[in-house]
Peptidase M19
Amino acid sequence: MTLRTLPLLALACLAGPLAAQDASDAARVHDSVLTLDTHLDSPANLDRPGWRITDRHDVLHDSTQVDLPRMIEGGLDGGFWVIYTDQGPNDAEGYARALAHALKRLHQIHDFVAANPQSFAIATTAADASLIAATGKRIVYISMENSYPLGTDLANLEAFHQLGLRMAGPVHNGTNQLADSTNGEAVHGGLSELGKAWVREANRLGIIIDASHAADSSFDQMLELSKAPIILSHSGPKALHDHPRNLDDARLKALAAKGGVIQINSLFLSPDKPRPTVEALLPQMAAAADLAPEARAALMARWAAANAAEPRSNTDFNRYMQAIFHCIDLVGVDHVGIGADWDGGGGVIGLNQISEIPRITEALLARGLTPAEVEKIWSGNVLRVMAEVERVAAKR
């Protein structure tokens, strides 16, 4: 019998503060709980020539943060793998290009799973997570960051659902046809009429609604209109840093009151710092795909070194845990999770690749959380939301 098969009740002796335990106890708890991160931007790395999810990489070499070897080392059972699409023009041509990109990314996710059936499996229900983890495979839920590729035809949402999509957010960095974004123009006063229909369709299909990147007005309306709980897949508390991507305490309480969950992001927890070397490399990075393999590899190494030397902010591991603890104290352990924005700009000083996530479990135990509560943070809360989304869809 492995630790993965032990019931949490058998670990009750580990429920005290970490001061009364040793490091091996924290490791046992981390290995025993189901761990999911709700925002893995790692599919974008599949565009890199020669980059494979099954090879071991290092953030200091090529800037990537997630791969199978590091997931195994860090004990991450899986998560929501993102179809991310940059915001473009809100017109027919823009929608067509975005749809082509999103379909490509969707197929890349399915392809890496199909190529490694011994290591990964697609999940489409809340119940799938534990079943897949029990086989030793990594869990692949599919999410969509920015529903811009759907254009004005919500039949596209159903098509993506049929191909495995189980979480979606309406916007990214820019207002689109569905909703106002945190850093976009206030065009719709929240959701557009199409955006309101998008909420209803997500409820009908059984897709978790993700309000990260949505303007406060859009968040308020999604929370009001949705018949199922919603989540913030990678957001933070405004109480720690007043940034548009973070939410104020009143909205976090409203989210929790309707059964939702905030998955804590590692970004926007302290002011950004100047990054002259990183910024100087941006034009070269934009043309990296056109370089010869050796030149591209050298550029990626310079890029990784620049990012290590010039972190986005002074946010460190303790600051990240402060954000988690603030939200636990504010809304309770049933409404907080982990969504650090890996491979999407996330990571903090002391927690900069997926192999390092056992530190989170250690800190949660040190705060006095029980193993059962730690599992809620890592997976139980988002899976509860998913199960309720499924229940609501079954009734419609």
In short: The chain has 14 helices and ten strands. The radius of gyration is 20 Å. Residues 34-273+311-395 form a domain with the TIM Barrel fold (CATH 3.20.20.140). The mean pLDDT is 93.
